[in-house]
Each structure stands twice: as C-alpha cells, then as structure tokens.
Amino acid sequence: MSAQEERTALTLPPALYDHALHLLRRTSDGVPPARGFSLPHRPGASGGSPLSHEEARRVIRDALDPLPDDAATLHRRFATLGTGRSHLHLIRFAVAGLPLPDGQREAARALARHLTRAGTTGPAVAAGLALLARLGEPGDIPCLTVLGLFREFTRPAVEALDSLDRRRAAVVWLAGYARRDELRPLVRALWRGDRRAIRTELIAFPDGPRFLSTAISRRVAEAAGLPGLLDRHPSDTALLARAGRLLVRMGCSRDDPADLLAYRGALAVYESVTARAGLLPPTLDNHATLLSLALDLSSGPGVLLDWPPGRRAALLASLGRLLAGPPWASLPDNGGAEAGRGLRAGWIRRTGRRPFRPPTLPDGLRVEVVAGDPVDREPVETRILLDGCPVVPAFFARGPAHSPEFLLDDGRLRAGSATREVQLAEAHCTEGCCGALYVTIRRDGDQVVWENWRRPFTPPGSRQPSHEPAARRFDAVAYDREIARAEADRSWSWPARTTARLIRAGLAERPDLLSRWDAKPGWISSGFDDPDTTVVTFGYAPVPGSGKPDGIPLQFRWVVPDDGTPPEAQAAAALDRLAREDPKTYGQVCGGSRERAGELGFSWPDGA
Length: 608
Prior knowledge:
Layout: H1 3-10, H2 16-26, H3 53-64, H4 71-81, H5 88-96, H6 102-118, H7 122-135, H8 141-147, H9 154-162, H10 166-177, H11 184-192, H12 195-202, H13 214-224, H14 226-232, H15 237-250, H16 258-262, H17 266-275, H18 284-299, H19 311-324, H20 341-351, E1 365-371, E2 380-386, E3 389-390, H21 391-395, H22 404-409, E4 420-426, H23 431-434, E5 436-444, E6 447-454, E7 472-475, H24 476-488, H25 495-509, H26 512-515, E8 519-526, E9 533-540, E10 554-561, H27 567-580, E11 588-591, H28 594-599
Antiparallel strand pairs: 1-2, 2-3, 4-5, 5-6, 6-7, 8-9, 9-10, 10-11
Helix pairs in contact: 3-4, 3-5, 5-7, 6-7, 7-9, 8-9, 9-10, 10-11, 10-13, 11-12, 13-15, 15-17, 15-18, 17-19, 18-19, 18-20, 25-27
C-alpha cells in the first residue's frame, strides 16, 4: 500500500452498515421510521450525474469485469470511473448479468461480504448486495436486514433476502414501503417479532384498496407467517376473514396479480380459508370475500397456482355449496341501505353463481365477463381462457383484461375475412409506459388462428411471465359460437352500465347528436366512484370560422344518475336531451387547461 493509500485508509468514513446500525440504535423504540433511512451525503462522494445513461452502463461493466479480488480495488475503480449514487440500479443490473463460474463463486461471495459489511460508498455496497442476491447464505441475513433500512438499498436487500428468508425479506420491505400511518403498528409488531401483537394488529388496520395493494398484501402475509398463524388460531374468524381478504387483494388485476403467484403460502391459505369458511359470520363483506376468491379460482390468477390435480375444482365446489345454502344465499336480499352495501348486494345477486357454472367449453377457447367487487372499484374484465388458462395474468400481468364494451360490443374478437391485431389488455399505467398484450386473429378455412402475440420485453429475473404464448387454432364453428355467446350475455351488467352501453350505441348511430354542438364522444361508462351512475364524457373544440380561438379541446363530463326506470328509457331520455340541449350547459369541464377554459368562457373546476 502506498503512503497516499495509507492516509486514505486512515480517513475513510464509517462503513454504511455501521452507520445504519447507529441510526437504528438512535430510534426511540428500535424500529426504523416509515421510509427508512437515507444514505449519508459525504463530502467528495460522487453523485454520478456527469455520466450519461449509456456511459454509466459502459463504465460499470468496465469496473466489474473482471471482478476484482478485493474490495479496495472496486472502490477505486468506481471512484476513478465516476460512478455514484445515481447509478446504483445500473450496478445492480450489471452484477446480475455477470458470469460467475463455479471456481469464482467463493471468492465472489467473500468479496460481497466485505463490500456489504465494510463498504463506505453506495456503489460498492450496491455491488455487494447484488452479489449476495446470487450468492447469499443464511449467515448474511442480519447484514442484509440492516442495509435494507437505507431506502436506496431496500429493493436489492429484499431481493437478496427473498431467496434466504421470505419472512425477513417481507419485514424489511414493509419497513421501507408500508408508509401509511394505519399500517405502522403492524410494522412495529413485525419488526419486534411480537407474535401476540402481530395477530392483534393484523386484523386491526383498514383493509380497503388504499391500504392493501397487491404487494403490501403479499408482504403482510409473508411477514406474519399467515399459514402458521391460521393453524395456531383455527377458530379466530376475524383472522380467517383477514386472510381471505389478503388473498383477494393479492390477486387484484388492476394492480399486479403476479404478487399472488409469487406468494409461496397461497395454496395453504386458500385451503385454510375454504375449509373453515363455514365458521365465518354470514355478512355481505364475508360473502364478497368468498365470492371474489371463487372468481379468481374459476377464471383469474388463482388458476395459475401450482395446484395438485383436482384440488382447485374441489375448493371451488366447496365455496359454491356454502354460498348457495342458508343463510348466505339470502344475504343479498337483506343488504340494507348503508353506503356501499346496496352496490355489493346487487353485485352478489348478479355474480353469485357465475364462478360455479360449468364452462361451456372446458377446453379450447372460453370467454368470461367478470365484474369485480364494486365496493373495491374492481374492473369489469373480459377474461379469455385457453384450455382453462387465463391468458392475461399468464402472459402479461401488468393490467386487467379489457372491458366487454371494448372487446365484445365492438366485435374485436370476431374472426372475419381480414386479419386483425387485437389489444387484449393494457398496462394499468398506460401502454406507453409498461406496454400492452396483443394477438393477431385470422380465419383460415374452417379454423380460426390466434398468432403473432405481442407484449413488452420481459427482462431476466422479472416476476412477469417470461414464456411466449404459442399460436393457437380453433374450430371455426365452435369459435364463432363462443364469441356470439359471450357477446349476447348481459347477465353481468347493471342498470347504469347498460344505460351507458345504449347511449354509446345511440351516439354511434346518430353522431350528429354531439357534432351539432361541436363535440365528439369520449369515454362513456358507469361511474368509477359511483357505479350506479352513468358518465358521458365528450370533447369540445370550436369549428374553424366560429370566431372562437383555436386550441386544444376541452373535455366535459356529464353524470346521469340512475332514476330507477329501465335502462332503455334512461338512455332514450339522455339521447333526447343531447338532441335538444347543448351538453356544455349541463356538463362540467373535466379536462383541457384552465387557460383554454377561460378562452372559451367556461369555469375551471375547483381543485383541478
């Protein structure tokens, strides 16, 4: 070591692992704060910003190849090449792709341990964490747990812990990402390992969609050791109901149902909840939970779990028998008038037997329209199954299947003489962000072909499905019959949704109803916040020569409440009003810009 290196070694800051321990000891109760800790800002440390993305990828590869024998060399390489905190994710991906022959694995593991325990910079520790994700052993769990408290390291630390100790990984994940105040008592109990408090807090926090994403639901179940907890408390109906609720939220198609597939305890929890479902108090909430589980077991992501032969069908039949008998079957007719209960009761009446009906085609193509629990604001999906396998969660899992209005009402699934590419699902964010799932449909003589599937690239190590869908051929007569059946089935719908469909069809037949007001139809469906309303949106842009300034269109929203008359009458009344009155006089501005609204003489909504 040179004199300069000796001076540098004497002035090195504390290891980040030691710094995390110090911060944890300074907390009042020994529990990390909601967002974890932030890496310290150290004078002279590189933030990494001067390098472009491509330059950073190149220099990181240079720093790691060949993998050095000692931590000091990697520290120097990263410092010399200008890598910093903004490059931590690139380091993680680069290490994941490094070749590690068997003869180098022990040396690489020793290097990883030195980097994680003694590393003083973000890039060095990030490299160590990424190596432990591939090479970690049980003895590394305490170090990974502590480093995961830095929010910059939570994801790579959890990735390494997932293969070593799922429960500990989940606790670290929740410590960093379960930030809502209502969840913090449970996180504290989990961090301390207080089994009695875990059971108490697990059933105490609110279980609505705002609190239970798919990821939080999975990590709560993992951290609490849910199968074991259910076994230790077989008569605890509140715990049983919460277990069912966690399964329902894990499989939510509007979020990321891959969390249900990643949960290793899913089969055991399904078994426990189904076997003891008869112990649950017969309430609408519990009925909705059991029906949602049945829908997932029938045509949702629950189908994709690694079930023993015949077991999924047996659980589904058990739920069907329970919900068809007293007192469960009469619950929807006694739903009461409380907020949300009427919605849920109506949904159960419409949907209650759908998952238990034998499929028209057990093999080949099956199309099921599934309306999720309206209290949870779950979507209405056109679930497509091939030989019983639900296509969207199996091959995409980034968003729900498209609505029946999109795929069935507009005839997109019909096989005509012309080849067509059909979008079956779009990512919950947007296609431009995370992609969509497409298939090409064509008729070939007495067969219909689905081929040339198109979806986003799936990187190695991703939880998204990696295998590509194969081309499929169907008997054309059977195919046409199944599509026609699905198009004609309206039993899943409710008055406001039917009214929206009829208004949309009426505007397609009579486009002048809006064009006379310089408007074009937009999204028309049942309301998201209130499914018992029909929402009609339209865009307004003055025609050239009208004397009004050019610019972007304004978006308007017209809410049509359900007045209790038949949907046909409500739709006819709405179309008649559009014919007689300018909808801009009773619709409200909901999009565009404040400046554009002012130019055209409209008020911009408060809070927008």
